[in-house]
UniProtKB/TrEMBL annotation:
This is Tryptophan--tRNA ligase. GO terms for cellular component: cytosol. It comes from Deinococcus phoenicis. Keywords: Aminoacyl-tRNA synthetase, ATP-binding, Cytoplasm, Ligase, Nucleotide-binding, Protein biosynthesis. A motif ('HIGH' region) lies at residues 10-18. Its main location: cytoplasm. L-tryptophan binds at D136. It is found in: Cytoplasm. The lineage of its organism: Bacteria, Thermotogati, Deinococcota, Deinococci, Deinococcales. It comes from the Bacteria. ATP binds at Q9, P10, T11, G17, N18, G148, E149, D150, I187, K195, M196, S197, K198, S199. It holds the Pfam family tRNA-synt_1b.
Amino acid sequence: MPRVFSGIQPTGDPHIGNYFGAMRNYVRLGEEYGKNSIYCVVDLHAITNPAAYDPKTLAQRTFEMAVANFAAGLDPEKVVFFVQSQVPEHQELSWVFTALTPVGELERMTQYKDKAEQLESIPAGLLMYPVLMAADILLYKADTVPVGEDQTQHIELTRALARKFNHAYGETFPEPKAVYARDALRIPGVDGQGKMSKSKGESSTIGILEPLDSIWQKLRVAPTDPARVRRSDPGDPDKCLIGDYHKLFSDLPTIETVYEGCRTAGIGCVDCKKMLMQGITRELTPLQERAEGLRANPDWVRDALATGARQAREIARPVMEEVREKAGF
Ligand code: ADP
Ligand code: NA
């Protein structure tokens, strides 16, 4: 049976990269796959990066990440949505895969290298992160994984582990494929320093639940095409992150107006940013209002997650039993 799985870390406030790159696809695929679409707040992943983990705030961040997904349109009646640590089989399967994974392959993962580079002492969990991710996906025998482009290498490893397990212990797992949001493969950070990411901190992100005036303060100082020094210089909107964001938030006539206006110096960067802010306001206001309603009803959120965990475990348990039997324990 075709099945979808994806996870999102509660390492910080969800941002427009998460939203357009992943969360909107959760909702879309949920319409198609129903209870065979399984989504997870991966709190056990979040603890592998000491720079982004604080035990005092983890539970609150997990709650907020759930709220954000519900506010973005995920319906817990239609899909399976839960918190990773509530389904212990993720860790159990992860250990089985650990035994099948060469350390060298993990050391070559670019996300690992980027994060490890900034740390004095590297936790083994950071190295093992992609193994746990493979377990997350394969525990549900998922074949479709909606993610951003940054996860390509991890999905490749998941496929390799599925093949390895099948070869060693008999046909068990499908080889899952990544599916990407075509227009949001890798959304740049608002600070102009590469990919937008929670783990880089708030200077890089535009949060989907962030107050609109705070978003505007970031946009106001965001870098634009560096070749456009004076207001009268023409610019290249394809080399500008504001141009990238317009494609996510603005309607077609607005996109045409600002792209043409930038190329001809017809409009300045501040006006272009103001027009972007209108699109952001239109998209995020209803979402933020729904989030407020959910925060006022925390029991509903927790109940939905507990139900999700029970549904996930019903799928996970027999798969884990099959694994135990095939692996000889
Ligand atoms: P982050 O890198 O911000 O900590 P996660 O690791 O929790 O985010 O990833 C959650 C999902 O969001 C993943 O599918 C990831 O590929 C996607 N994603 C993260 N950042 C971006 C981005 N800048 N553009 C597109 N997709 C992204
Ligand atoms: Na990431």
